[in-house]
Design brief:
heterodimer; A: 306 residues; mainly alpha; MetI-like fold; two-stranded antiparallel ribbon; globular; B: 367 residues; alpha+beta; OB fold (Dihydrolipoamide Acetyltransferase, E2P); five-stranded antiparallel β-sheet
Chain lengths: 306, 367
C-alpha cells in the first residue's frame, strides 16, 4: 500500500547534464519514466514522507503543551499509550473487522446481482451504489442518527416485534457504530468486487456446468476464485480506513466504547498530547500492517495473473 | 470418400440413436432461432451442423448441451429424454467456441475439472489426465496456465477437458474458428483422428463448408432455423437440391429452364439433358445447376455428342496455378463460371466464342 520513497527522481538530474550527442536521446528515454514519477513523487514526499518522519519524531518527544515538547527518544510513550488504550485498539480492529465482514456479505451479492443480472440497468444500479457519495460523509452519518434515534420508527418496530428490549435502544451502541461503518464503506467493497465479477466470461460458468457442476459448485470453483482480486481489494479498502475511523463511533456509537480513532482525535485536538497521539497513530499503522500482510499473502492474487 | 449413411437411412435399424431431436423449436423474443427441427444422429458419427451465422446451428447445439431449453419438441440422448435436464445432468460435453478454459487453473486442473466433480480418486485422475494430454499431444504442459498457451494448445486443452469424461456425445461449437488457416487445417485432421480413436459421436457446428466436408461423415445444412439438406458430403455436394445449399456448399452455375420430362429448354432454346435420377419431378419452370469444375470448354463446333452444351463468350480469364477460372456470358446475359484444370496449353482468350459442355449426370435440379 505505502509507496516507497521517491529517491530515483532525485538521483537522475546530476547525471543528465553530462551526457551529450547521440547518447542523449537514449538517456532521455531512460529519464522519461522518472520524469513521469516526479509530480507524484514530490507530492508524496511533501505530504506523506516528511509528515511521517515528523510524526515519528513527535511520538518520541516528552513534555507538555504548556512547557513545550523535547525530543528524548521517549519510547515509553508507546508502552504507556498501549497500556492505556489497548482496549480501544482491540475494539477498533473488532468493529472494523465486523463492518468489513458485513460489507462483504452485503456487497458481494449486490455486486453479483448487478454484474450478472443487471442487464441494461447495470450502469443505473452502479450509480445508485455511488449515490450516497453525493451527500457529505458527515451528513450521511447524521442521517443514521435520525434513523436509529430512540423515538425513531426502526427502534419502534424492533421493540414491538421483540428483537430489542422494551427500553432498549440502537443509538449509542457498538452495533450502531458498526452499522454506520458498514454503510459508509459499502461502495468501497461493492465496486472492486463488481469489476472482478464483470470481467468473468459467462461461458466459463457454462463450461463448469457442462463439467458436472451444479450452480453452487460452479460458483465455488469458478466465480468465487475469479472474483478473489475484487474481494481482496474491497476488504482492504474497507478494513484499513475503517480501523482509523472516528466519525461513526462518535456520532452513532457508545460514548464509553470509542474506537482508537476517537482517542487519537481527542489527544491531538482537545488534550493536545501530541506524543501520545503520534505513538497511537504509529501503533495503529503497525497493527493494520500485521493484519493485512498475512491476509494478502494467504489469499494473495499473484497466482491469478497468468 | 464413400457416401455415409444418412440419418434417414439409419431410422430403420434398432440400434439407439446418439441424438434425437423431434420437433424442436426455440424462439428468442419474436425471432424463431430454431424452427421445428427433427434430427437423428447415429452412434459414432462425425456430424456437422453447417450454415451461415444466425441460421440456428449454435442454438441447436446449445439445446443438446442443455444451455437453452427448447420452447417445443423433445431431445433424446441414447433413447433417454433429456429435455429440461440441466447441462451437468446430461452425458454430453462441450468444446466451447472461445474454449472457456478456467484462467485460474493450470492445464492439469482444467482437464481434471470434470473428474474432480465426479469425485474420481486422485490416482485415477492423474492417470487419466496423463492419457488425455498424450492423446491431444500436450505432454509436459500440465503446469501451465491457459494464458501461457497458444491458440492451438488451448484448443487441445478444451478438447481434452471434454473428452476425459468419456461423454456419449461431444459437442463442438465452432472449435476451429479462432485459429489461423494453417493450424485450422492441421486441427481438422487431428479432430478426425481423435474421433476415430475414441469412437464418440461428435456434433460439430461450423460455418465453414470446407471444414464440414473435410471432417464430417454427415452434414446438416441449416438456414433460417431449418435443415435445408441432410446427407454425406459427396451426396449433398453433387445434388444440393436447393439454391441455398448449392450456393453455400461451393460454387454453382444456376440457370432457368422449362422442363419437359427428362430435359429442359434454356432461354436461348438450348436443350439440356437432366440426369436419370432427377427424372422424377414436375414439368414447368425449374432451376438447374452445374458445378464449375464439372464443365469443360471447347471451340463451338467441337462440342462432343451426348454432352450438354451452352454457347457463350469468354469475358474474363484468370490463371491461378492449379486451374484456370473462366467467366463466360451467355447469349441471354447470364454469367457462368468454369474451372478448368491446366492439363494442356489450350487457353481460350477473352472475347472468343466457346461451348461450355458437361455430362448430363452432372446436372442437378434445385427447388
Amino acid at each position: 500500500m505505502t509507496t516507497d520513497t521517491a529517491t530515483p527522481p532525485a538521483a537522475t538530474p546530476p547525471g543528465a547534464g553530462q551526457t551529450a550527442g547521440a547518447a542523449s536521446s537514449k538517456s532521455k528515454r531512460k529519464r522519461v519514466p522518472y520524469l513521469l514519477l516526479l509530480p507524484g513523487g514530490i507530492w508524496l514526499i511533501m505530504f506523506y514522507v516528511i509528515p511521517m518522519i515528523q510524526l515519528a519524531g513527535v511520538s518520541l518527544q516528552e513534555g507538555s503543551f504548556q512547557t513545550g515538547y523535547r525530543f528524548t527518544w521517549a519510547w515509553g510513550n508507546y508502552s504507556a499509550a498501549f497500556t492505556a488504550f489497548g482496549g480501544h485498539f482491540i475494539r477498533s480492529i473488532l468493529y472494523a473487522g465486523t463492518a468489513t465482514l458485513l460489507a462483504l456479505l452485503i456487497g458481494y451479492p449486490l455486486a453479483y446481482a448487478i454484474a450478472f443480472r443487471g442487464g441494461r440497468y447495470r450502469n443505473l444500479l452502479l450509480i445508485l451504489v455511488l449515490m450516497p457519495f453525493l451527500t457529505p460523509f458527515l451528513l450521511r452519518t447524521l442521517a443514521w442518527k435520525v434513523i436509529l434515534a430512540d423515538s425513531g420508527w426502526v427502534v419502534g418496530v424492533l421493540q414491538s416485534i421483540g428483537i430489542i428490549a422494551e427500553n432498549g435502544r440502537l443509538l449509542a451502541t457498538g452495533w450502531a457504530g458498526v452499522a454506520g461503518i458498514t454503510y459508509n464503506f459499502l461502495a468501497f467493497m461493492t465496486l472492486p468486487i463488481y469489476v472482478s465479477l464483470e470481467k468473468i466470461d459467462p461461458s466459463l460458468i457454462e463450461a463448469a456446468q457442462d463439467l458436472y457442476s451444479n450452480s453452487r459448485t460452479a460458483f465455488r470453483k469458478v466465480t468465487l476464485p475469479l472474483s478473489r482480486p475484487g474481494i481482496v481489494a474491497g476488504t482492504l479498502l474497507t478494513l484499513i480506513p475503517a480501523s482509523g475511523d472516528f466519525v461513526n463511533a462518535q456520532l452513532l456509537g457508545n460514548p464509553q466504547q470509542l474506537m482508537i480513532g476517537n482517542v487519537i482525535d481527542s489527544r491531538f485536538l482537545r488534550i493536545v498530547d501530541y506524543p501520545t497521539a503520534a505513538a497511537l497513530s504509529f501503533t495503529l499503522m503497525v497493527a493494520i500492517l500485521l493484519i493485512v500482510i498475512p491476509y494478502v499473502r494467504a489469499v494473495g492474487t499473484e497466482d491469478l495473473v497468468a | 470418400m464413400p457416401d455415409a449413411t444418412t440419418g434417414e437411412e439409419a431410422r430403420g435399424s434398432h440400434e439407439p440413436l446418439a441424438v434425437e431431436l423431434s420437433g424442436v423449436t426455440k424462439r428468442f423474443g419474436d425471432v424463431v432461432a430454431v424452427d421445428d427441427i427433427t434430427l437423428e444422429i447415429g452412434e459414432n458419427r462425425f456430424y456437422a451442423l453447417l450454415g451461415p451465422s444466425g441460421c440456428g446451428k449454435t442454438t441447436t447445439l446449445r439445446m443438446i448441451g442443455g444451455f437453452e431449453d427448447p420452447d417445443a419438441g423433445s431431445i433424446r440422448l441414447h433413447g433417454e429424454d433429456v429435455t429440461g435436464l440441466k447441462p451437468y445432468q446430461r452425458p454430453v460435453n462441450t468444446v466451447f467456441q472461445s474454449y472457456a478454459l478456467f484462467p485460474h487453473l493450470n492445464v492439469f486442473e482444467n482437464v481434471a475439472f470434470g473428474l474432480r466433480r465426479k469425485k474420481v480418486p486422485s490416482a485415477e485422475v492423474t492417470e487419466r489426465v496423463g492419457e488425455m494430454l498424450d492423446l491431444v499431444q500436450l505432454v509436459g504442459m500440465d503446469k501451465r496456465k491457459p494464458g501461457q498457451l497458444s491458440g492451438g494448445q488451448r484448443q487441445r486443452v478444451a478438447l481434452a477437458r471434454a473428452l476425459i469424461n468419456h461423454p456419449r456425445v461431444l459437442l463442438l461449437d465452432e472449435p476451429l474458428g479462432a485459429l489461423d488457416l494453417k493450424l485450422r487445417k492441421e486441427m481438422q485432421i487431428e479432430l478426425k483422428r481423435i474421433q476415430n480413436e475414441v469412437g464418440i459421436t461428435f456434433v460439430h457446428v461450423t460455418h465453414d463448408q470446407e471444414e464440414a466436408m473435410t471432417m464430417a461423415d454427415t452434414i446438416a445444412v441449416m438456414n433460417e432455423g431449418r435443415i435445408e439438406r441432410l446427407g454425406g458430403p459427396t451426396e449433398i455436394y453433387e445434388d444440393p437440391r436447393s439454391a441455398f445449399v448449392a450456393g453455400f456448399l461451393g460454387a454453382s452455375n444456376l440457370m432457368q429452364g422449362d422442363r419437359k420430362g427428362n430435359a429442359a429448354t434454356l432461354q436461348d432454346g438450348t436443350t439440356i439433358a437432366l440426369p436419370e435420377a432427377g427424372a422424377a419431378g414436375v414439368d414447368g419452370d425449374i432451376q438447374l445447376g452445374v458445378r464449375p469444375e464439372k464443365m469443360s470448354l471447347q471451340a463451338p463446333e467441337a462440342a462432343p455428342p451426348g454432352a450438354n452444351s451452352i454457347l457463350a463468350t469468354v469475358v474474363d480469364v484468370s490463371f491461378i496455378g492449379v486451374s484456370t477460372h473462366y467467366l463466360l456470358r451467355t447469349s441471354w446475359g447470364a454469367d457462368l463460371v468454369v474451372v478448368v484444370q491446366n492439363l494442356d496449353d489450350e487457353r481460350h482468350a477473352a472475347g472468343s466464342s466457346v461451348a461450355a459442355t458437361w455430362l448430363p449426370q452432372h446436372t442437378f435440379v434445385v427447388s
